[in-house]
Amino acid sequence: MRLRVVRKNEDLPKLNPNEKMVYLTFRPTTVDLVNLMVRCPGLVAVQVSPHCRRRLSLGTCRVLEAQGIDLLVGGDAQRYKSKTGEYIMVDEAVIEEIRKMVSEGVGAEKIVTRLEWTARLAPDLIRYIIKTSI
Q: Is residue 48 a contact partner of residue 71, using CB atoms and an 8 Å limit?
């Protein structure tokens, strides 16, 4: 699983239309999110930093919800601004570990607690993986 890192709204028109998951390191406006949805019609999840999430309007969140796009709250965006890679990669071993714990009946919050630090993933992203792996 991979998330495309977008550092500024000027990069939205340059995105590959096949992107499924995007991490926005800037504070998106409703217009930015609409442009993102138009550019990437198969979008299933958008991740933003906790700071950005607190500042998103209810209308912006409803636009995503209406399109069936999950809004995930990620970690510190500063960590990704300095990276040279375009993607955040989620190791397949971590996804398999999550699937294994789900099949063993481990609760979602317990999985999040176990993997948040070891896998260095945001809790919302882990919950999203749990939701999509069922």
A: yes
Please indicate, yes or no, whether residues 41 and 82 belong to a single structural domain of this protein: yes
Gyration radius (Cα) of the chain, Å: 15
- Read off the tokens for 124: 């919302």
Single-letter residue type at 107: G
Who's near 68: CB < 8 A, 6+ residues apart? 44
Residues 75 and 20 both lie in one domain: yes
pLDDT digits (tens, 9 = 90+) for 26-84: 888 889 999 999 999 999 999 998 888 888 888 888 889 999 999 999 865 555 554 54
* Domain ranges, residue 8: 2-88
